[in-house]
Amino acid sequence: MPRQPLLTFTDRGICCPEGDFHIDPWRPVPRALITHGHSDHARPGHGAYLATEGSAPVIRYRLGDIRLGTIAYGERRRIGGVTVSFHPAGHVPGSAQIRVERAGEVWVVSGDYKVAGDGLSEPFEPVACHCFISECTFGLPVFRWKPQAELAADLNRWWAANAAEGRVSIVGAYALGKAQRLMASADPSIGPILTHGAVEATTAVLRAQGLALPATTHVTPGIDGKTHPGALVIAPPSALGTAWAHRIGPAAEAFASGWMALRGVRRRRGLAQGFVMSDHADWEGLNTAIRATGAERIFVTHGYTAIFRRWLEDQGYEAGIVATEYEGESLDAAEAEPGPLIEAGGEEEAGAVQGGDAPG
Ligand SMILES: [Zn+2]
Ligand SMILES: [Zn+2]
């Protein structure tokens, strides 16, 4: 009897028939292996969850009382007829690629990843495989990120200039990953760091699991640009331009996102400043990661899939597109505010920028 492929693609998510589990499924399944805590990957309603020790606290914070088992990076675990292991994806703290092996055949699901170090997440680890299932959120040559040290210098220069002019600096960044990366990049000698509630809550979860992050003050009534002159304020993108932001006082606002590489996005949002900073791989990062796997077959899941598939085929790969419900990097959507779903009363509204601001 011919064997099924190691992983199959279903309307519930990426499925491993012989292990009887799904990876980052978007509809409820009995057993889910989860790459990381962003809401397009870690969804409610599954019977049981398995995630890395580093991503479990955020997943538990977001999804409440779930059956969640943990696994260390590199630990091999037998599930049904296959062996699985989780490996650093460099996307956000605790994020993983998932390796699945059966009789010497290896497939790897990347989840979201980036190759360059961000000073915070466990560095991306190339995993040799026969078939690599990759995101390609930023799969165009126009997307090229600066090294982390240069991004930090840009941020601090902008912050210091605003502080010198008596303004606070508000940066929009999603609450899990990028917000903490900004904090870790900020030079506390310039001024205090303030946070929006969604950012503060997620940061508290990460601090509790041992991440060293600078001191922050949650913006509550009575905390503003007068009590904290020249502050850097880190908030979800959706908070920019709102009454919440105006109350803090005279401010300069900026987004930190890979989409800031596109002038049209910056212009439509009326932003003087944007930091081209992403937790997804840029063009070079995608190509480096794919080459490093040694895989001959590549499936791309979300992003510029058609263009990127074509590019891979031109490079001699056997390439395919998988339809998924992952959202890539969003300015407004789910990744922005990973508050507890339970309290929020349901799923967040999705409005991925790919469908709106960015060219497809
Ligand atoms: Zn993500
Ligand atoms: Zn994602």
TrEMBL record:
Top-level lineage group: Bacteria
InterPro entries (UniProt xref): MBL, RibonucZ/Hydroxyglut_hydro, Xnuc_lig_assoc
GO molecular function terms listed in the Swiss-Prot or TrEMBL record: RNA endonuclease activity
NCBIfam families in UniProt: Xnuc_lig_assoc
Entry protein name: Putative mRNA 3-end processing factor
Organism of origin: Cereibacter azotoformans
